Amino acid sequence: xxxxxxxxxxxxxxxxxxxxxxxxxxxxxxxxxxxxxxxxxxxxxxxxxxxxxxxxxxxxxxxxxxxxxxxxxxxxxxxxxxxxxxxxxxxxxxxxxxxxxxxxxxxxxxxxxxxxxxxxxxxxxxxxxxxxxxxxxxxxxxxxxxxxxxxxxxxxxxxxxxxxxxxxxxxxxxxxxxxxxxxxxxxxxxxxxxxxxxxxxxxxxxxxxxxxxxxxxxxxxxxxxxxxxxxxxxxxxxxxxxxxxxxxxxxxxxxxxxxxxxxxxxxxxxxxxxxxxxxxxxxxxxxxxxxxxxxxxxxxxxxxxxxxxxxxxxxxxxxxxxxxxxxxxxxxxxxxxxxxxxxxxxxxxxxxxxxxxxxxxxxxxxxxxxxxxxxxxxxxxxxxxxxxxxxxxxxxxxxxxxxxxxxxxxxxxxxxxxxxxxxxxxxxxxxxxxxxxxxxxxxxxxxxxxxxxxxxxxxxxxxxxxxxxxxxxxxxxxxxxxxxxxxxxxxxxxxxxxxxxxxxxxxxxxxxxxxxxxxxxxxxxxxxxxxxxxxxxxxxxxxxxxxxxxxxxxxxxxxxxxxxxxxxxxxxxxxxxxxxxxxxxxxxxxxxxxxxxxxxxxxxxxxxxxxxxxxxxxxxxxxxxxxxxxxxxxxxxxxxxxxxxxxxxxxxxxxxxxxxxxxxxxxxxxxxxxxxxxxxxxxxxxxxxxxxxxxxxxxxxxxxxxxxxxxxxxxxxxxxxxxxxxxxxxxxxxxxxxxxxxxxxx
Length: 746
What we know:
By secondary structure, this protein is α+β, with helices and mostly antiparallel strands. Among the domains are: 34-127, Zinc/RING finger domain, C3HC4 (zinc finger) (Herpes Virus-1, 2-Layer Sandwich), CATH 3.30.40.10; 145-221, no CATH class; 382-525 and 597-629, Alpha-Beta Complex (Hect, E3 ligase catalytic domain fold), CATH 3.90.1750.10; 533-595, no CATH class; 637-745, Hect, E3 ligase catalytic domain (Hect, E3 ligase catalytic fold). It is 39% helix and 9% strand. Strand 15 and strand 16 (478-479) form a beta hairpin.
């Protein structure tokens, strides 16, 4: 034992020779990680092993050296010992050129020195200096030099080994060494063209030309809690006199003690009650921001209120306008639902479709849109229902791609975005795998709740995206311009998440503006934006002032005041007639709404291509507009009744039970129950919304001789008791649903 320990101590990794190339160099960037296995008396460079011609990974990932069995490695060392390197003339040349009739062999370091190409993909082929692949250079391509967009030094436009050009951008040239360092740092998820952000075409060409792209996350993503401080939300009441008895740091969502942050800086806050705010939707500015705007002459509450009124009057009509995201979950005419009143859940607004719509006989008439009349609204609703049914059928066609192989996502509900991003970017994640969700901060969750967890996850994720900095606007949202998000490729991830959510049973997003949807479907060059698409209050006011100018002098005066803005938009030009303002407004809108966000839009489009969703959107624009641009229909007794198919052991039980069931749904809708439609749906299916793709399997009801209702969530089956009176039926329903959901929340 002492002799063995002595040998291990004398086994110095720095001085050991690689068994394949015979070198002691420890340079991971060039030769891969140098690995020493004391128990096998073996040292190898990872790239030397990976590129050797006579060895394959016959084991599992945790066997031998990343799947290369020790016996196979020794056989390969013995085979290479008989081959002489055509470069250094020493034995041990384990790598051969794959070109037909070429018999050159060499060590991996020698091959690099002699400018051979090693392809880190598929069969891990190697090409000698004579047969290596080259990039095509057209005669008409300009010669000379340009900046390498990575190191910013000059790179000559020459067909040489040390220079690579982008396959997707004619003006992008790189040093090979710069690209290799970039690839090692960014990994397979973030390595892309630095000019146009293209990923697939760029990576394929670089792999062909010998750039190694490791299958791991980016180096900056591997640092634990690297961006933790960016996820912290300011929660402190800063007004001079705080009225909350529990202190300035107390925050209770959906109450008068909820903390509202400054709409401009976000670094100051107030309780709603402390600033006499009636609802969370009201804007609030801290004293510092208010004083800054007052000094600049841009601050005017009256102007903002007038502009908001203008937006409400002239906005794009939304057929199923929902209450704002912060509205409490409550049935029409019913007390606020106390079953799902967990502060954590309420703060995330888990039920965007929780406000019930009464039947036509006693429906409360609401002004959903000034454009849509009361007479046309039922027809619009019916049309949307038909479109959503068609969307469900199309999504079911796309779901055929999903395999039974599962991918598990470990999600923290309190940090939904970063944990979802980590899950979607993990190497083993595939959109075609069945997704299982495990909430790391929910204890004692049973295995039967896996479907409920997935519904819950997609709902939280869609709500986060809707309110994230990637989008801007009130109800119908457009993409914003966030340079950090562009750099981190978050727009692509957002599009991918929405596509995956639609196919895997998530909710209808429902927050796309018509302009954003048309840009995705018809292309930005075919879209004409409107003033309602401008989310920035000051920019919208500037455009409106130009649009409303009634004389040439007032127009020129307005343009003079905002010349810096016009110059930044590329719209600064002499105006000689009042009619010129129409073209000017059009150009400003095109810049601010579309051209300015061209990079985010392209990235978002690529994400939506996942599972073929974008292609279906372009083939069926009206159908997908119903789930992407319109809020989900509020659950009603009719909707829930149509959702379930009733089965029973006898026609008598079926007829009597169906009557009790319909009567109960009507009571719930009318607010004569302690539960809501969402609670019923959640009790049966584990979801408080109807997925865009529908439920699988379709929900059913069975009337049985049992004491209390039973929900079989894996089958979406509701087993109901056969009772003598309706009151018995109602009492059992309310007791079971209320207690079940309360226990689940606790």
